[in-house]
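Hey, quick one: can you model this chain's 3D structure?
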Amino acid sequence: MAALRPAIFLDRDGTLNHPAATGEYVTDPSQLRLLAGAAEAVMLLRGAGYACVVVSNQRGVSLGRMSERQLEAVDARLHELVEIDRSYYCTHGLDDGCDCRKPGAGLLLRAGVELKLGLARSWMIGDSDSDCEAGLRAGCRTVKVTPTDGALLEAATEIVAGAVPTVPTRRPSPHPIGGCLMSSAIVTGGAGFIGSHVVDSLLADGYEVTVVDDLTTGSIDRVPADAELSITDISDADALGEVFDRVQPSAVFHLGAQSMVTVSVADPVRDCEVNVRGTLNVVEAATRYRAPVVFTSTGGALYGDSAPLPTPETHIPAPISPYGASKWAGESYVRTWALAHDIPHAVCRLGNVYGPRQSPHGEAGVVAIFTRALFDGRSPKLFGYGEATRDYIHVADVVACLRAASGVRGVFNVATGIETSGTEVWEALRAASGTDLEPELAPLRTGELTRSCMDPGDALRELGWRAAIPFAEGVRNTYAALVDEFEAEQCRR
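Sure thing. Here's the predicted structure for all 493 residues.
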């Protein structure tokens, strides 16, 4: 796997430019004045191979002291004064329950996904403890500077010279690799569609990763050579415990599940065994090492058909399938163990995820199923007569949110907040393929929802995360990636 570029994340006010002494925010671009040595520091860092990215709050927008247009003008002036790769500003308002006093880890993780950055080799430079906290939560190393002339240049010089002490951002694994101690993570379901992307992200950031998967639906081809694979059923507590005792993880991403609604209807006992008992086994094992767990739950199947749209996390679940019920029960164990043992476990309720590596052989991967049908030149079935809606979200956005949620206690909808019908999905993919096939319309299957759409507001407020990939762009790119996969599969036969 190619090494990702490291980055220097810079809080703007107090690190690059002079903060306003009165607390007022610069609204006139001509008033923006860099701290002495700031431009030279950025040139030095860029010359050493670092991307330089501004990640900052802009509370002036939240307080109504400046407009979005003024922020854009000030940011444009900043880019004229110093060579920054990209800027990310947190501008959501006080009425959303967030006072916007610090850049969240979600901003750094979003930058990591969009700019393909290796966060474990990156640095967050800020002038406050909250800046450093955001960097640590995103997996970066951190440097706190005083908001004075020359401070950034001094920090940059020490980073380039390797003179800044490396402070571990997470508890290291006791297992040395290549003479170095590395953070370790376990990803259950890591041979699956979403899990394999999480594994890639963790490996790129320097984690030692162990994949736990029984390969019922996962594929060994999705597990990178740099990751360890343990073929283990999560419902087997003893076998799972042995993996945890050997790895002693500092983080756990629990994606292993029985994820098909129709299977849960046909065999609710097995569904419960995997999704409830398996989840309990995971949090029990993680407790021994005080490792925070990020548990991926479902959104639509949990909330039911009568939920308000977009559905907030506060809505009481009313699942209409055994799958939704088992996921809700799994959530309860995760949240209870978080409270009982004071470990910041997170529950992430996913929308309908799509992207490269998605299997066309399941029931929920509509984008992959339709793409395969187009590739084969046949008409797929549009259940719900093409009118059923879902909240589609790209897998890269999901990975960024899961990473941001690690070590943060809470329940988060991971979604776009936008309804898209099956017909709209089909039309987007058909346009990408250039064909004129017509689908076969069919009624919904037992346990399936008519409409689904979730409110991702809590993820924005608590994690600084929002979906970054528009549906049209994501579907177009996914179609191309999946076709490449299908063609490669044909060549291997």
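One thing worth noting: DSSP finds 17 helices and 19 strands in the chain.
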